[in-house]
Amino acid sequence: MDAINGIVNAFRGNPFYFSAIFLLPLLLPVLASRVVSNRRANVREPWKLPNWKGIPLIGNTIEYLVNNSSFITRTALAMQTRDIVQFYLGPIRAYLVSGPQNVQALFRKSASVSADKFSLMTMDALMCYSKEDIAKFASDKTGRLAEAKEGAVAPDGTRYWFGMHHHMKTLSQITSTSVLTDKFLEFFDERVQVYPLGEPVTVNLYNFMRTQMAGAAIRALVGDALFARVGEENLLDAFWAYDSVVINLMYALPKWIDPKPWKIRARAYGMCLEWLKQDFDAVGSPESEENDVDWHPVMGLRFLREYLVWYKKVGLSDDARAGNFLGFLLGLNANTIPIAGWALMEIVQDRQLWRAVQEEAESAFEVNPGTGKRKLNIHKMMGLPILQSVYAETLRVHVSVNVTREVVGESASIAGYQLPRNSLIQAPTRIAHFNEKAWATADHSASEFWPYRHVKYANIQDENGEKTEKPEFVLAAGPNDFFPYGGGVSICPGRHFAKQEIMATIAVMVTTFEIEMVEWMSFDGKTKSDRPAQENAKYSGSASMPPDRDMKVRWIRRV
Ligand code: HEM
Ligand SMILES: *[C@@H]1O[C@H](CO)[C@@H](O)[C@H](O)[C@H]1NC(C)=O
Ligand SMILES: *[C@@H]1O[C@H](CO)[C@@H](O)[C@H](O)[C@H]1NC(C)=O
Ligand SMILES: *[C@@H]1O[C@H](CO)[C@@H](O)[C@H](O)[C@H]1NC(C)=O
User: Fold this and answer.
1) H-helix or E-strand spanning residue 296
2) Does the keyword Cytoplasm apply (predicted)?
3) Per residue in 307-333, pLDDT tens?
């Protein structure tokens, strides 16, 4: 059986999932025969995770599906002394790995492990690709890299994975990133400057981020036509509703049992399709010289324009084009906004941190002597040590993603074991990012948010011989202990922009406003909450974890 397809079926579209408890016993003979054959083969195998509550064969599967946080807690404990753990997920052999070398092995260019099945899953569940579109990608075994995999031939002459990956890579290049950041800053600043100078205003901070940060980012990526066509408020409403059902679409019940997530997806998708057909495709010649600009009011960023034109050129359907665009909006906003939101909420609650970040950020602004206008110097900002540390610490603590790979070769060599074909390997950030051995300091355990964790003080001597301590940003553990953006060939192409956008948003907020917390609110901002925000567990494993409460603040615009 093909591992990730198996998972998809195990989670939805298959009676296995919703009556797992009743039907699982039918699988017992299959599982039991595996256990016996393994024993016979006498191969060296990684340590096996004991079954949850002692339920034979299927205990771990049940816990993985119904109580992911207790599963993680249990495996994290086991992984304090070992870096690979084996269990069964339904009928699929699965491994959890941790430790820098093993994580790196998953990210290495390799013919034996692949992330493609996971991408196919998102194309189907999240991005509305048609069956034909998915079949095209599925049958292209030539890989994402410029050089086709040995022996593989693209079925209809098109290398779909490579084409997609090639465009993704252009997003991560400096040219795309800097235009996107400049546009974002321009639009975000406009939205901040509407608040009256010197007057106190009460705002729900997280809701402000969800509307204004997302609004500015979408306009920076897409241009003006999308909001003009469907309305900004309408689009954002549909978008955040879609964001909240991503896990349901990927892992939950089939459409005919629970149609609601699919209706929500259809609404957001419909808006994307409308823009694509009515606006984007109506620009007769997207590739003409006059349209050859870095940012187009109808077609958006050069990267997006070239990407969507390529989709059409190689004969992928409008479903796939519009759906891919919708998936892109998710990539753009679903992770940066929770991270910027958490970071700001932490800064607002800690006056000393607030002053330190404000002072630092202030130093990255320049005033144009002609116009008197303030402008953030992105290059300077990217070097600010405390701001970088807050950024990294927020990602460490609030990203929960399972980097998932499938063994597609004969076997894959990880942690000194040969893992068999079709097995599934996961490296959850929740284990790596909370590893005490890698992250704890004498005073601050890994489980704590400690904004200065990645700041080191270097002793320097100035020309007068005076000694001072200069703060520097140094990630508190190695790069393979920290992978909020995934890694390897499928690493997040938006990571450079994400870092600039998050840091710039914080820099603009702390220098434009004086902000004071009033109280915690329910997430919809309507009622007072008697406890601070916690992560919304529903998003576990999907990347950034949003808060489940909002923070009501009072702010005064100072510049
Ligand atoms: C804090 C912010 C972000 C986090 C934590 C994050 C995380 C991730 C992760 C974990 C992946 C999967 C990587 C893998 O499979 O190894 C991913 C993929 C992706 N991200 Fe991000 N991301 C962020 C921001 C962004 C932004 C701002 C954009 C767009 C401008 C973006 C666009 C994408 C796209 C298009 C993919 C799919 C790439 C592919 O399939 O090859 N992300 N991201
Ligand atoms: C992520 O992995 C954990 C266990 O490692 C599991 O319980 C959870 O369901 C997974 N989440 C997703 C979205 O795959
Ligand atoms: C998950 O497991 C933990 C620890 O075993 C338990 O305290 C909690 O009640 C469980 N939650 C659910 C929803 O089953
Ligand atoms: C993880 O558990 C939370 C809370 O029990 C739940 O809402 C969420 O859907 C689960 N995630 C997955 C992927 O099963």
Assistant:
1) strand 295-296
2) no
3) 999 999 999 999 999 999 999 999 999
pTM of the model: 0.92
Pick from 504, 525, 505: nearest CA to 203: 525
Token pair in block for residue 119 = 């991408």
Nearest CA to ligand 2 atom 13: 541
Q: How far is CA 118 from CA 114, 124, 126, 132, 327, in A?
A: 9, 10, 11, 18, 14
Q: What does each C-alpha distance from 96 to 89, 168, 230, 403 come to in angstroms?
A: 11, 28, 44, 10
The predicted pLDDT at position 26 comes to: 53
Lookup: tokens for 225:
């036509």
Domain boundaries of the chain, sorted by first residue:
1-90, 166-399+434-557
Per-residue DSSP letters for 197-241?
Answer: BT-EEEEEHHHHIIIIIHHHHHHHHH-SHHHHHH-HHHHHHHHHH
Ligand minimally distant from the alpha carbon of residue 68: 2
Q: How many CA atoms lie within 13 A of 421 on its CB side?
A: 6
- Tell me the binding residues for heme: 492
Question: How far, in Å, is the centroid of ligand 4 from the Cα of 253?
Answer: 13
CATH topology of domain 166-399+434-557: Cytochrome p450 (1.10.630)
Across residues 339-347, what is the average pLDDT?
98
CA of 67 to the centre of ligand 3 (A): 6
Average pLDDT over residues 260-278: 97
Distance CA 430, CA 445 (A): 14
Outline where DSSP puts E strands in 27-103: 84-89, 92-97
pLDDT band at 476; cut points 50, 70, 90: very high
3-state secondary structure of 7: helix
